[in-house]
Every structure is written in C-alpha cells, then in structure tokens.
Amino acid sequence: PGPAPHVWNVEYILWAPDCKQHGMIGINGAFPGPTITAYAGDLITVVVNNKLHTEGVVIHWHGIKQIGTPWADGTASISQCPINPGETFTYEFKADKAGTYFYHGHFGMQRAAGLYGSLIVLDRDDPFEKDPMYAGDLNMLLSDWYHEAVYAQAAGLERKDDHFQWVGEPQTLLINGKGQFGCTLGDVGKFQKGIHRDATKCDRRDGERVEAACDAGCERKGKGSEAEKEKAACEDEKAENCGVVRRSECGPFCRETQCGPVVFDVEPGRTYRLRIASTTSLSALNVQVQGHKLTVVEADGNLVEPFDVDDIDIYSGESYSVLLNTTAAKQVSSPSYWISVGVIGRRPRTLPALAVLRYAGSKNELPAGVPPATPAWDDVGRSKEFAKKLKARAGPGYRAPPGTTRVHRTIAMLNTQELVDGQIKWAINHVSLSLPATPYLGAYAYGIQGQVFDTTPAPATFHSSYDIEKPPQEQKPEAVQPVTVSDRVYTFAHGEVVDVVLQNADMRKHGVSESHPWHLHGHDFWVLGYGEGRCDPEQDLKNKEFINTVNPPLRNTAVLFPHGWTALRFVADNPGVWAFHCHIEPHLHMGMGVVFAEGMEERRLRELKLKVPREAIMCGKTALAAMARPLAP
Ligand code: C2O
Ligand code: CU
C-alpha cells in the first residue's frame, strides 16, 4: 500500500537556473526534480529510468533510514550498481519518519550537476498543524550552482603535482533551484562587506559600474614596503569585492521563467512552517527573513526543543523546520519582505540569494528596504552556538541514547588533507576513500568480500602524538601513517553501540582548518557534543561540560568545526552497508568518507542474498559470482 509510483526520466537538460543556460541533469525535463510528498509509514516507489546516455545514475534518499531495504539507499558502489543508460531501477522504501528531507544523485558528482529535489514526509498526527494559527508549509530547498560542468570540476580535483584545481566558490546560490547570477534583485544595499549594489533594478549599467570599479586597478602610491603592502591589500580587497561581480548578467525580473526570484505567499496573522534543507555542493549558508523571528522546531526529521533565532545557519546535508509567525508584521504598509540566503564559513565570492515573502494584499512587486545582511563569514562561534542550542524534544519519537557504559566501541576519526602520489586527498586516519567497482552490498550477499574490496579493518584511531595544530606534512614521523587510498570498511556487529569522535586538524596549510558537515546513511545519530582542540575520548566523552547524554538531538548530519571535535553515538541496528562522509561534494570526491558494514554476519547474508533485488547488485564481480553459483531455486 502507498501512493502511486513516481516515474522519473533522469536526463540531460538545458536549463537556466540562474538565468544563464547550462547543461545539467534534470528529472522529467525539469530542474530541480519533482517534490515527493508522503505520509510517515507510506511506501514510496520511484521508478527511475536512466536517460543519461553517457553515464550511470543512482538516487539517494537523504535522511530516509532504509530499515530493512539497504539496497534502496541509492549509493553507487555501496548499496547498488549504477543504473546503466537505458535501464530502469525501482526504488521502494518506507518513509520511516515525518520530516524535511531531500534526494540527490550519489554517483560521481551528480548532485552538483543538479540531480536533486525535495522529499517531504508528513505526519498524520502533526503537532504543528494542531495550532489554530497554522496555515501551511513553505518549502525551501537550498543549493549552490557552478557554471563549470561537474566533469571539469572532477578533473580539476584529480589533477596531479601542483596542478590541483579547486572548484572554487559557486557562481550562484539557488532557492528551489532558482537564482540570478551576478545580480542582486531590487533595491539592494550592502549585503556583505564590499559587495555594494545600489541600483533600484538590476540592469546592465549597474553591472558596468561595478565592473569599472573592479577594473580600476591598484596603483602603488609611493615607495617602500608599506606602499607594497597597501597595494597588496587593495588587490586582496578587489579580489574579494569583484570576484563575483565581474560582469552583471542580470536576467529580467523573471517570475515565470526558470530563474529567480521565488515568491512565497502568506496571509497575515498566521503561523507557517518553513522547511529548509541544504543540498549545496560546497557552501554553508545563513538564512534570514527580514523583519521576522524564526522558531526552530525540527532538525533532520527530528523534533527539537523549540527556540527562537533571528537567522539560521545551515550546512550541506542538514535540514530544519522553523515556524514563521506572520502576526508581528501585520501592521506594515508594504507587507513584503526579503528572504536572504548568504554564504558563511568560507570567504564569500557568491552573492546572496533572495526570495520574497509576500503578504496577501501586497501591491509591491519587491520588498522595501535592504535585504538582511549575512553575518560575518568567519564568525564560526555563531554557528557553534546555534549547533549547541539544539536539544531533542521529548516525546514518542525520541529515545535517549544508551548510556556511556553501554558503548561497545569508540572510533576516533582524524580528518586530514594529504598529498598522495601528487594528488590532494582528504583522509580519515590516513585512509582516503575510493569506492570499489562492485558494490559492497553485493559482495556481502555473495560472500566475495575479499575479491571486491580490501578487507583490512579500517583504522579506529590515530596516533596519540598527532598534533592537530600542525599540517600533516609537519608531523613527527611516528605520529603519522603513510596515506592509503582504499576501500576498506568499518564492520559492526548487529546492535553494537558506537561512539564516533570526528577530529578536525590543520589542513595542508598551517593554522587553516575548515568545517565539514558529516552525514551518515541508514541512521540518525545522537549529537553528544562539540569541543575545541584535540579530543581525549577517555576524558572528554565523560565530561558533562561537553557531552549531553540526556537529550542530545538525533540527526543524520553534524558539523565538524575548524580545529575542534564532534562526538556522535549511534546503534548499529540496521543491517546494511552505509556511507558516512563529508557532505561537501568535492571533499567526498577527494576521499572524505568512510563505509560502515553493519550486521553483515554470516547468518544474515543468506537472507540478504535472497532479498536484495538482483538488478541492484548484478554487476562487476557479483555478477560473475552469480553466474558461477546461481541462486538455488
Ligand atoms: Cu546526502 Cu551520502 O549524502
Ligand atoms: Cu568536508
């Protein structure tokens, strides 16, 4: 039982998400993909026809646990074989829990190519709908968009010997797949330091003026090192200010077309649930609604103790629901407001995206006033404070974590950026992930693990003298291991209680460390806490100052902040093979992930072999094994 199957053709389309046309991956001729809406408990069926003529495809249902259906998780090389061009695969899985989710491609860098959409699971007994003020949901799927094709991006990331080409910052931020490249709509003032636009409408002249300023050049005024410094500072500033606004490519105020802005219509005096999810390739974002406070009520499909905020930080892979009250703003004469979404965590080179919150009866095309400014990009403290405010909301949907004494294993995961054979890679305990050609799940079902991947256990810790304040290349020789590019896995017995401590450190540059949003498939984990510096699991995981075992939030994504650590707990109670990785697409591509093989005990494999749909695993070595040893009738 369940809603009618969704039938999707995944195909190359020409689309102009930011008013500039590009080749991208669409579903049923459009971008983003259709929104799936289901009720908790429903069986969701999606028939995926791969009409991409030059590549395989898979679709991952981000936040869905796939309890008992590990083959429907949609991760190439892990849960299934990529669906070949011209072939069809049917995903069938249960919407296990109400919440705000999304789906996306999980093969190569297909997510960044535009293969994504919203997945909303409704609650038949929704606590928020009972509020007499409740008037409905608004949905906001956030993403970032690059003009360079993902194939070129991937090629750049894989280049060797100093030719590494980082993808850089995205050209445009998208709201529900819509944005405007290099253009800030309307009467837009100072968004972020240095990005100043004062045109009342986006037009070419404005673009030209900015371009002139950017072309002016930085003269050296005078002689000596001071003048040199000034010139360098000027050049830096110019790079920062002009990076994104080299040329104005503003589209029209194109409501009916493929690009922005998005308008959300609301009635005054009501409460809306604004669902926000981020499937960005790179950017961490800050979301603000001009003139409105937001009440955070859900994180990654789990209810949280409500709290009020002025703005919300959202990293790739995360989702939130916030309540938006339209009572306070009732009296305003031109009731239409900006929603602005800007980059945090990295020096922004991308203009904020704007949407419009339009009250019924508003005559105004555009909101009056200046869109809310994005907070300082480098104020990580703000983000941490927000993360630490999240506490689970007690109720039937929540189970507190097993106590610390019941933890079977603690795994420390050092995140480092390494140089391997001239390539820049991310590594976890000095192992950089590269996926096998044959999916792990098929290898287990057919008992051919050793033929498919390196069965050496993945390292559960790193050296005690590793100095996280130093880049890997400056460590004492005994503190490091040679980096391996490998497909080895962590194995867990069914039901094990596992603590994972993600440990951040210097990248290859001294003093530089980035944020990484880590996402786990097949589970929610409890986010026990965050700390600074190097974690000593023995001490720190027992320290109530950092660790919350009473009401920690359940989530599927948690941020590892620069030079800090993040502690998670989960129960390995969902037999399957699951990815756990940084949700930044280029980071994953560079090896920033691990694989958990869970409950893959001998006695369970026979059942797995019988249940797994053949088309999910009939490729590579599994296909050969199946030919040699056909299933008994
Ligand atoms: Cu949304 Cu493995 O990712
Ligand atoms: Cu990362």
Automatic annotation (TrEMBL):
SUPFAM superfamilies according to UniProt: Cupredoxins (SSF49503)
Localization, UniProt: Secreted
GO molecular function, one term: oxidoreductase activity
Known cofactor(s): Cu cation
Residue ranges constituting the Plastocyanin-like domain according to the UniProt record: 10-125, 140-361, 479-599
Family classification: Belongs to the multicopper oxidase family.
Name of the protein this chain belongs to: L-ascorbate oxidase
Organism: Panicum hallii var. hallii
